[in-house]
Description:
mainly beta, Elongation Factor Tu (Ef-tu), domain 3, 3 domains, six-stranded antiparallel barrel, six-stranded antiparallel β-barrel
Amino acid sequence: MFTGLVExxxxxxxxxxxxxxxxxxxxxxRVLEATAVGDSIAVNGCCLTVVELGPHSFSAHAxxxxxxxxxxxxxxxxxxxxxxxxxxxxxxxxxHFVQGHVDxxxxxxxxxxxxxxxxxxxxxxAELSLFVVEKGSIAVxxxxxxxxxxxxxxxxxxxxxxxxxxxxxxxxxPQEAVNLETDILxxxxxxxxxxxxxxxxxxxxxxxREHGFC
Length: 214
């Protein structure tokens, strides 16, 4: 579990093909502190398991499922990436609950400067739009952001200068692909409503009890 608050920007050093995917080696510094083989690090929003540690880098394996659902397959040496270690017990939760399980790939549509802030508009797959609401949360390349506007296949976020400077958002260009993870709570609510059956949208105390929530 992560918060979507980026700890540092790392850089892809190597991408090595393997029998069941690729091995990604990432140059990093801060996220290496107290990190051990087997720990999880979110790389541009993808939860990856550390399989090897170096003095200034870590390596992780990305399998075929990850390659099919994320932007990992397009990564090349030199690419910048947002890095975050997994949330530890007792840590402050400054962003929102981010699993590091990418739901799909979107793309930057437009960059709109507004005074000191910058508004970004992203395209997203239609099947994900159901889980995106104004003032709700979404993770873009692992960054926890608040949705300021949304429509069927697009949403907007307002970015302050600090976020632009501390993440890869400032370097994004229109049409560039990004990893998207929608709010986990929205997905659970959608799943529960679907269990009610067609035309039924009421969640009762009895329904919650039957499904282990009371």
